[in-house]
Amino acid sequence: MLHGTRIIIMLIGSATLVVICAWLVAVQGTTQLARGPHDVSAFRCFDSRLPNVTIFATGGTIAGTGSSGKDMSNYQIGALGVQHLIDAVPELCNVANVRGVEVSNVGSHNINSNMLVRMSQQIQRELDDPYTQGAVFTHGTDTLEETAFFMDLTLQSSKPVVAVGAMRPATAISADGPMNLLTAVSLAADHDAWDRGVMLAMNDRIGAARFTSKTNANRVDAFMAVEQGYLGVFENTKPIFFYPPARPLGHRHFDISSQLTAQKSLPKVEILYGYQELEPSLFKSAIDLGAKGIVLAGAGGGWWPTAARQQVDAWAEASGVIIMTSSRSLSGYVDDSSGGIGCGFLDPQRCRVQLQLCLEAGLSRHEVRKVFQFGV
Ligand SMILES: NC(=O)C[C@H](N)C(=O)O
């Protein structure tokens, strides 16, 4: 009898222990995410089994509204705040715990290097947070590629960062913003997306920030990586990659965490366009206005009129301004043969961004050449 009671007591004790352990594991599971730096109430909805993804909003057409469903060019940019964008896609709650941070609400033609620096520092802090699994930033599409490339060069983390925008305002019939946002968050929440740098999620496709550009001013399928191709696609909203994770050759990280204050802008770099009968005095004006570097969007492999070239070389020599040569063609490689430092595979706008970061880092002309012409 005594023996039987002892067995029953032992059984009850063990069962209680199991229940307590299970409860502790469950509680630990929920509190681990909830206990993060963010109050759970900051999330639109919260499920401890889902990853935490932060959405940084900057404005653009994705946050724009027009007066009618067919208005796709004359609309108000930046009419909607980040919470509105999140609330418009309740399906986000099945994918991730999303939290919105409004960085700005402007058309992307008004983004400047000071805003880029601040946003990069904000996103980096978020990625360093163990409770955050990925980040998304919404942005106007016109200069999306510059911001995405800047983030690619300055952020350091295995976690996914996804750039997203829309070609149609939120009020348009068949607005593309909500689906683009859902795929972007799905990508940022997906473990297969780790170690791939900053990506773009536009029109059911995944592109690398280094190579994907806006190739059409109006159409929904505006973004392409003409030469290098996409990284993957979305099937429904699930990201499917073509290849395992990799970073492009020539990728280099620029640490902007310490040397820049939030008030500071990056060194001034101008872009000039190459054409028949190019007027060289435009370069002189850019130098006189304080440019530390000039990128020429030259013809073909970076060519421009020989007389203009010689004149500009003399000015550059006297002033110490770095002249870079890129191409006005949609894709291709530019080396040093047409003069200046060739931008390699980078288009003029990306060449400008990388040169700004090189100048900020204090690199010499020789070091700048090495950054752009890796492997040559
Ligand atoms: N589709 C867009 O987002 C274009 C807009 N003008 C912008 O870049 O802000």
UniProtKB/TrEMBL annotation:
GO biological processes: L-asparagine catabolic process
EC id: 3.5.1.1
GO molecular function: asparaginase activity
Domain L-asparaginase N-terminal: 52-244
Active site per UniProt: T61, T141
Annotated CDD domains: L-asparaginase_II
Pfam families: Asparaginase, Asparaginase_C
UniProt xrefs under SMART domains: Asparaginase (SM00870)
UniProt keyword annotations, A-Z: Hydrolase, Membrane, Transmembrane, Transmembrane helix
Domain Asparaginase/glutaminase C-terminal residue range list: 268-372
Stretches that traverse the bilayer: 7-26
Entry keyword annotation includes Acetylation: no
Catalysed reactions listed for this entry: L-asparagine + H2O = L-aspartate + NH4(+)
The UniProt record lists the keyword NADP: no
Organism domain of life: Eukaryota
Binding site for substrate: S108, T141, D142
Annotated family: Belongs to the asparaginase 1 family.
PANTHER family: 60 KDA LYSOPHOSPHOLIPASE, L-ASPARAGINASE
Protein name from the UniProt record: asparaginase
Source species: Emericellopsis cladophorae
